[in-house]
Design brief:
The complex is a heterodimer. By secondary structure, chain A is mainly beta. Chain A is built from no helices and 11 strands. In chain A, strands 2, 4, 5, 9, 10 and 11 form a 6-stranded mixed beta sheet that branches. A 5-stranded antiparallel beta sheet of chain A has the order 1-3-8-7-6, with no helix packed on it. The radius of gyration of chain A is 14 Å and the shape is globular. By secondary structure, chain B is mainly beta. Chain B contains no helices and 11 strands. In chain B, the strands form 2 sheets. In chain B, strands 2, 4, 5, 6, 9, 10 and 11 form a 7-stranded mixed beta sheet that branches. Chain B has a 4-stranded antiparallel beta sheet with strand order 1-3-8-7, with no helix packed on it. Chain B is globular and about 40 Å long. Classes of the chains: A mainly beta, B mainly beta. At the A-B interface, strand 4, strand 5 and strand 9 of A face strand 5, strand 9 and strand 10 of B.
């Protein structure tokens, strides 16, 4: 059964720092992996989608990598800003269980001005 | 291109009543997924519909049901409401065969008193 873990659950860093958020999964038979951010009380915003055949995707200051063999993905945020403060979630689309999305619990990120 | 829309945005109901929530996906998207989000349990998958057929289902009681119409709009219904059903209900749509990037609506905040 696929399990997705995000560690740490919370992270606080000073503005301007580069940081890495982690996502690990137990079953490498994934179709794709997606990173989202969620602001308090709001819906989720899609950040990056990585297909299983890809190693990384970039959008602006964000870079997501995927290593299927080790069951890991990282989200790299460069030059962090207070507006980056949010909860970041990763989700894997499992090839077993009818391609259902399996979610991590998220990392709450706080960027201190 | 309009995003995912959910109606109503806020709802207050009494224990024992029933409620229907609506979701209109992005134009052309045939997959609609529903999630429940609470502070204690995080994001939990309810069900996914693709081309009017339920493709996946989470572990929720039969009081939670859904359907999808031929225009891909979806509704979810909760009968015999309980206090614990108070939550943010999120809808997401996905294009092509429904296995790609998920786009979320703003959610419906349901409060059961």
């Amino acid at each position: 059964k696929q399990e997705v873990t995000q560690i740490p659950a919370a992270l606080s860093v000073p503005e301007g720092e580069n940081l890495v958020l982690n996502c690990s999964f137990t079953d490498s038979a994934i179709y794709n992996l997606q990173w989202f951010r969620q602001d308090p009380g709001k819906g989720l915003t899609s950040l990056l989608l990585i297909q299983s055949s890809q190693r990384e995707q970039t959008s602006g200051r964000l870079n997501a990598s995927l290593d299927k063999s080790s069951g890991r993905s990282t989200l790299y945020i460069a030059a962090s800003q207070p507006g980056d403060s949010a909860t970041y979630l990763c989700a894997v689309r499992n090839m077993d269980s009818n391609y259902q999305l399996i979610w991590g619990a998220g990392t709450k990120l706080i960027i201190k001005p | 291109k309009a995003g995912v829309t959910q109606t109503p945005r806020y709802l207050i109901k009494t224990r024992g009543q029933q409620v229907t929530l609506s979701c209109s996906p992005i134009s052309g998207h045939r997959s609609v997924s529903w999630y429940q989000q609470t502070p204690g349990q995080g994001l939990q998958f309810l069900f996914e519909y693709f081309s009017e057929t339920q493709r996946n289902k989470g572990n929720f009681p039969g009081r939670f049901s859904g359907r999808q119409f031929s225009n891909s709009r979806s509704e979810m219904n909760v009968s015999t409401l309980e206090l614990g059903d108070s939550a943010l209900y999120l809808c997401a749509s996905s294009g092509l065969d429904g296995l790609y990037e998920q786009y979320f609506g703003p959610g419906t905040r349901l409060t059961v008193t």
